[in-house]
Structures are given as C-alpha cells and as structure tokens.
Write a structure and sequence with these properties.
Shape: globular
Number of strands: 10
Order of helices and strands: EHEEHEHHEEHEHEEE
Strand order of the largest sheet: 1-8-2-3-7-4-6-5-9-10
Number of helices: 6
C-alpha cells in the first residue's frame, strides 16, 4: 500500500519533502509531479526500482531512462557535453525537455542504452520536484508515468494512488499535473535530433 504525501504546490512542506526523500533513499518507488506530467522515480542505483518501472510500463532494454537533476552542475556529472551542445541545453533548462547524451562512468551500466551507451537527463522547472531533488542530493532515476495501452498519463495524485496502490511505495500529490510528456532531444551524435515532440518548444532545435 503506497504512502500518500499531500504537498503544497508553491510552498512544499520541508518535513514532508524530507519524508519523501528518506523513502527514496530507503529504496522506495514513487510517483511524483513534474513540469510536464507525473513520473515514476527511484534512487539512481536501485535495480529493484528499475525492474519495477520496466514491469509497470512494460519497457524493453532499449528504453532510455532519465536522470532528473537539480541543476546543470549535477547534470554535468552524468553526461558528456561539448561546447555547442552545452549552450543549447543551458538555454533550455530548467524546462520540459529530456536530452539524450553519452553517459559518463557515473551512470550505472544498467541505465545506459545497451548499444549507444547513452542516457536521458533533464532539469525540471517544478517547485516540488526541485525541493525533493535538493533534499535528496542526487538525481532521481525516472520514467514518464504512462501506462501500457494508454495514450495519456494520469494527471491526479489520488487517481495514481487508487490505480497503482499495489505496485508503488509512495505517491506525491501537489495538484493537477499536465498530460504532455517532455520533448526529447537526442544530442548523442553532436547534432540535435527531435525524438519526441512534447511540452517543450522544438523550434530552437530544428
């Protein structure tokens, strides 16, 4: 049965955020809001969390997991970025974008694309997510909470708890969340390739 955390969208309660962060450190799989839509999240090195996300979403080993980072300095520990790409990503963060880039040695191999050795990274523009990342002190390993055979993600925390109570450890609810996932930009070749059009404006990368 998933714990339910009701968090204020503009002024997240520090005690509640600390409880959520402690749950993640202890191995919990959570559902939490972002600036695009709800996501599934767990600790960076949690094999159990990865396996559970794959099961819930029915993902294969070619799926790009995303490291949701607090800021650019943290993001830079996990991916390799040249100067041109650096400027393009810097100008678009924080925001509703996921960037696919070559992974550094800091990224566990189980999170990397098996052939490309890449990983997704993003910096969300969301008060609650940022509070959680600050408290956690490390990225959240994440994937969009989009269930198999459904076209849109759920937008309400209570709905997520109701439907996924048996497979999640915690749900963070800070009100209605959007239905549009992030825009995904693949920079692994050095050039921008729009892989998925979503909440972020693609015009700057075309």
């Amino acid at each position: 049965m998933a714990k339910y955390f009701d968090v204020h969208p503009d002024n997240p309660q520090p005690r509640t955020i600390a409880q959520v962060a402690e749950s993640v450190r202890s191995g919990a799989l959570i559902a939490y809001p972002t600036d695009s839509c709800y996501a599934l999240g767990c600790r960076l090195g949690s094999r159990d969390g990865i396996d559970r996300i794959r099961t819930i979403r029915r993902l294969d080993d070619r799926h790009h997991f995303t490291l949701v980072c607090q800021d650019f300095a943290q993001l830079g520990q996990f991916v390799r970025i040249d100067n041109d790409v650096f400027r393009a990503i810097k100008a678009s963060t924080p925001g509703s974008y996921t960037f696919i880039l070559p992974a550094t040695r800091e990224v566990p191999r189980m999170l990397q694309h098996p052939k490309k050795k890449t990983v997704g990274v993003r910096i969300p523009d969301h008060v609650v997510t940022q509070a959680l990342l600050t408290e956690l002190g490390e990225p959240l390993l994440s994937s969009t909470l989009l269930l198999p055979d459904e076209e849109e993600p759920m937008t309400q925390g209570w709905e997520i708890k109701d439907r996924l109570d048996h497979v999640l450890d915690a749900v963070v609810d800070s009100g209605d969340c959007g239905t549009e996932p992030t825009t995904v930009i693949d920079f692994s070749s050095g050039e921008a390739e729009v892989v998925r059009e979503g909440a972020g404006d693609t015009s700057r990368f075309e």
